[in-house]
Known about the structure:
By secondary structure, the chain is of the alpha+beta class. The protein has one domain: Aminopeptidase, CATH 3.40.630. 27% of the residues lie in helices and 30% in strands. The protein has helices at 27-34, 51-64, 114-128, 144-152, 180-183, and strands at 12-13, 17-21, 67-72, 75-83, 98-105, 134-140, 156-164, 170-179. Strand 3 (67-72) and strand 4 form a beta hairpin. 34% of the residues are buried.
Amino acid sequence: MNKPIDISAVTLKTERLILRPWRLDDLDDFFAYARVDGVGQMAGWNPHKTKEDSLFILKKFIEQKKTFAIEYEGKAIGSLGIELYNEVVFPEFSDKKGRALGFVLSKDYWNRGLMTEAVKAVIRYLFEVEKLDFILCGHYIDNYASMRVQEKCGFRPLKIIKLPTPDGSVKDGVYNILESEKYDVIIL
Length: 188
């Protein structure tokens, strides 16, 4: 079952990053990366066309209290959401507490290990503070960067399902899982 999550008062720090709730004054940083072609599509959404598009999503991030801004050197460069997973698709977890992760990073910061660092910090928070039993994380089958982040964080394949794409089509996606009992073995 999906455990309720509220990160509105949570800040996580890593060696290079601060993960914190989004603020309205992050709008320019958010729009700067959300408008770039190739960023959102791999996460299931189209590039933002206007700053108003980004403001609409930013307000949702703030209201829903489940998405971290990934801050690097004073700038918001990505987001990491603690999402609801589809309980109909994963009925085997009805007696366990869990959530799903979704993340995106500005193209300017790819291939530096920053997303892996951010995901590991959120995994630690979810297992040690929120006491989840499992975390799911999915990616399109051809999103190798997301696949690598998930592998580095200890996720293992669970199920292949059909996922909608930004252009309205459907393609295969892989859902991976990390369970709390396996977390103790993984070096974070």
